[in-house]
Structures are given as C-alpha cells and as structure tokens.
Amino acid sequence: MDKHVICFNGGSSSIKVAVKKVEGTEVESVVDFNCQGLGTPKGYIDIKTGGEKEKLEMPMDDHKSALHEITEIIDERFPGLNIVAAGHRCVHGGPAIKDTVLIDGPDGKIAGYLKEYSSLAPLHNPANLQIVQAALADPVFGKVPNAGIFDTQFHARMPEYARYYGVPRSWIKDYNIMRYGFHGASYTFITKRFAELNKLSDTDNNIVVAHLGNGCSMAKVAGGIGADTTMGTTPLEGLVMGTRSGDVDPGVLELMADNLNTDIKEIVRILNKESGLYGLYSKDGIKEMHFIRQAALEGDKEAELVVEIAAYRVAKYFCSYLGTMDSPKGIVFTGGIGENEGYFRSKVLNFMKLYKWKIDETANGTRSEECIIAESGTIPGLKAWVIPTDEEKVFALEAMRFA
C-alpha cells in the first residue's frame, strides 16, 4: 500500500498543507491545500491536484477549523490515502534543536521550545505552535507521528567563530544572542542535490547557496555542513529582501528612533515590514523583484538602482564566503528570484569582478530549471548553477523517519 505524508507550513492567518506520496527517497505530490484568511469572513481554500486548481470560499475561525475542513475534503475526495506521518515546518529552535524531532504532544518539550524561542521569531513560532497543536488535536493527523523540521537545524553545526557576534558574553549565555540562520529545508535539499548532480562526497561538497525570494538568505556549506549564513538571531539580518532591510548599522536604530520620535521597537518593525525592495522602490508599494526588474528593463533608473543594491549585497556575500573556503565547487541560485530572474543573476555575477564569470546567456534566460549558467574565468571548475528547491520533499522525507 502507498504511504502518504502530510506537510504543514503556515503563518498566523494561513496554512499550506501538502499531501505527498513517499516511496524510498522518491516523493510525489498528491494534492496541495492553501488556506487563507483564517479568522476572517473572507477565508478560502485553494486546492491544487496535478495541473487543476479549485477555490473554495469558506470562513475558518482558526488553524483547527482549517485542518478540520481539509480532513473532510480528504475523506470525501481522497479516501484511499494511507497517512503514516506528518511533518511541520517550524522556524526557530534556538540552541536546543539540532535535528528533526518527534513532537511529544501539544504541551510537551518541543511545544515548550516553540514558546521559549518565540521572542526570536515572533512572526513565526507562535503560528507554528498553533498549527502543531491543531494537528495533534485532529482525529486524522493526530493519530500519526508528527515531526518538527526546524529552519535553524541545518545551521546547528556552524563553527563558533561564525556563530558568535562581538557582543558581551552574557548576551550569548543568558539571552541566546547568536547566529542561527533560516531556510534550512531549502539548504538541505540544495546541498544534497548539488552533490548528486556533481557526484560529490559530503567531504568535497563545498558550495555557497543563495536562497532568494521574498525572504532572502545565503549559506556557506563546507563539507556538506552549514558553516555560515547571512540571517542571524532573527530573519532580519543579511540580504535586501522584499520588505526587510537586511544588514544595517545598529546605530541607525537609535538615530531614527530620535528622528521619528518613536522607540526602537517601532524602528525594528519598519526594518522588517517597510524596508527592503518595498522601502527602496517608491512606486505603488511594490516589493516583488519581477515588477522592479521589468521596470528597470523599460528604462526606470530608480528600479535599476534597486536591483543593483540587492544584487551587490548578494555578490558581496558570495565573494566573502568563497574567499574563506577550500576548493569551492560551485555557487547556487535558488528560491523564486534565484530560480527565475536571469537579469538579477547576471547583475550578481557581474559584480563579482575577481571571478570573471563567463555567462551562458541562453542558460541564464531559463526559468525554474536545473542548469549551469556561468563558469569562472579565474578559478578552474568553479560554476554557477540554478537549482530549483523543494522544501516539501525535505519535510516529507524527514517525517518518514518516524513513520
């Protein structure tokens, strides 16, 4: 009999639920549910099966009621599913979580970690906990092992010299202020896939990966292990993102709090919600790279500058990570921007002057395809890749460890 895994990934007012058939290391999509507008009268569920999409408008009070609607749909339309495990995308595990874990009940140790580290990921961990508790209370999903796959776990073996900031030791010890990193499932997938494509052992798997979407981060992978990353204690640090500033002088927080007659909490909110592409590009509240890229191609100089600001930040991190690696085997672009925006990728590569990238314009023009888009003219064998990520495959395979 086929085995199926339920994968949960959601926020405070939404939840995505994917059903995957798993056979060995092969994962196949069965159906995807996207529940939006929880707690509002305009809630709906998008259902995607194969190439077909359907929208069901229905108010859902919370995550628990959303999961109840999904189990009803599964029972009616997919009665043959053999659900053996559930995988939860969780964001912040603090220093406690270093691997995928079996969730030990709605008020157990893992739920306690989600609560404890909510201050480090206030937009994500509370929603993760709500979804975990809703799944465990569900008559279908609660009967199978539920696994927690944390964004931070890929980076858990980062060396201390990369993990720690230059802050008082008491901050590290008493308040867990250190670099954790995020997008762990994406980096897990890309690291394994790059090794497969290049027939590399873990020891030789030395790459730098740029996960570029609305949220953006990069990771240095040395010997198949996360060795450094651009996001830090929270997802605010690092690259220029859709609405997040990325790196900024900490002194700006006090300066702008004084200038705007507000507190640092409000300044951090602005850096999270009103900065990045959204803050830099002054037209129509746009935060999506593809709109800004198109405007740049049509001659909009402001848009061109925004693209270059974001691309230069990526190029800087590529260069800094590559410069601290033995025998780098490649760089990888992934995520919505990384996989689809050839114009942006070329900007990044052209900023990396030392590497003299020879760009294959045909390959670089493709979207969401595995391909080599450039080769370095100064480091023999170093290539730039595009590899589409598949985080849900990671969630499904990790959850199957407990089935």
Give an overview in words.
The structure is a single chain. By secondary structure, the protein is an alpha+beta fold. The protein has two domains: 3-156, ATPase, nucleotide binding domain (Nucleotidyltransferase, domain 5, 2-Layer Sandwich), CATH 3.30.420; 184-386, Nucleotidyltransferase, domain 5. Helix content is 36%, strand content 23%. It has helices at 63-77, 109-116, 125-137, 160-163, 169-175, 184-198, 251-259, 264-273, 276-280, 289-297, 301-322, 335-340, 342-351, 361-364, 391-399; strands at 3-11, 14-23, 26-36, 44-49, 52-57, 83-90, 101-102, 146-150, 207-212, 216-222, 225-229, 330-334, 357-359, 371-376, 383-386. Strand 2 (14-23) and strand 3 (26-36) form a beta hairpin. Helix 1 packs across helix 3 and helix 11 (301-322) packs across helix 13. It is globular.
What are the key terms here?
Nucleotidyltransferase, domain 5; 8-stranded mixed sheet; 7-stranded mixed sheet; 15 strands
Cα distance, first to last residue? 14 Å
Q: What fold name goes in the CATH topology slot of the largest domain?
A: Nucleotidyltransferase, domain 5
From N to C, what is the helix and strand string?
A: EEEEEHEEHHEHHHEEEHHHHHEHHEHEEH
- Largest beta sheet: what is the strand line-up? 5-4-3-2-1-6-8-7
Oligomer: single chain
Largest sheet: 8 strands, mixed
Number of domains: 2
Q: Could you name the ranges where pLDDT drops below 50 across 5 or more consecutive residues?
A: none
CATH level-1 class of the largest domain: Alpha Beta
Rg from C-alpha positions?
21 Å
Structural category is: alpha+beta
